[in-house]
Amino acid sequence: MVDYSKWDKLQISDEEDAKPSPSRPPAPVQPKAPAIPKRRLHPSDYHPERSLNKELFEPLNCRRWVRPELLDVISKWQSAKNTGDENAFKSVDLDGFEGFQVEAPGIFSFPALTDEFCELLLKEVQHYRQSGLPSRAPNSMNNYGLVLNEIGLRPAFSAVLKEVLLPIGARLSGNDEDRITAFKGEAVETELWMIIIPSLFSTAQLMTSTWTCTLMNAT
């Protein structure tokens, strides 16, 4: 049996009692890394991470969104262009373009975009509004529009302008050798007019499948 009473008789000298207990050196203080300012979100952050209908953003799909009437009227131009024909624009026959109309001097309308494209684009705009990303008004008179080029659609729209609308613009307001002077026997008189790229491809507020081109007097 262990006798614990002897533990009461242990003596500790004053010197031993006065010795401080060994302690570990303080850990070095690590300097705090400077705070990195949080980058503000931009409309360009939308695609491809947050976009809804990613096929809209693909330039190779541009012909998919164009009405058959318009594709038909530019088909000869595309064939002539591929062979290097310098007069390729003249192959675009606006008289045979079903749905092409002169609404007023310098204002023309024609079927351009499919209903599928219009519906998908409107859904894309609504989806962007719900994403919380910032948007700016296209101009001072359009507070509810959206600059579609800024959310990633510029390459797709540029493809449509280059591959589809270029020959139409050339026939309406191009060089003298390319521009038409009459439509179905009626004088067009666009010699002193320059074409304005429609706002349909830069903003989204009201979307229809009919395209309206406006010409502005350059004098």
UniProtKB/TrEMBL annotation:
GO terms, molecular function: L-ascorbic acid binding
Bias kind Basic and acidic residues: ranges: 1-12
Compositional bias (Pro residues): 22-31
UniProt keywords, alphabetically: Vitamin C
KW Transmembrane helix (keyword) present: no
A matching Pfam family: OGFOD2-like
Coiled coil ranges: none
Region: Disordered, residue numbers: 1-47
Protein name: 2-oxoglutarate and iron-dependent oxygenase domain-containing protein 2
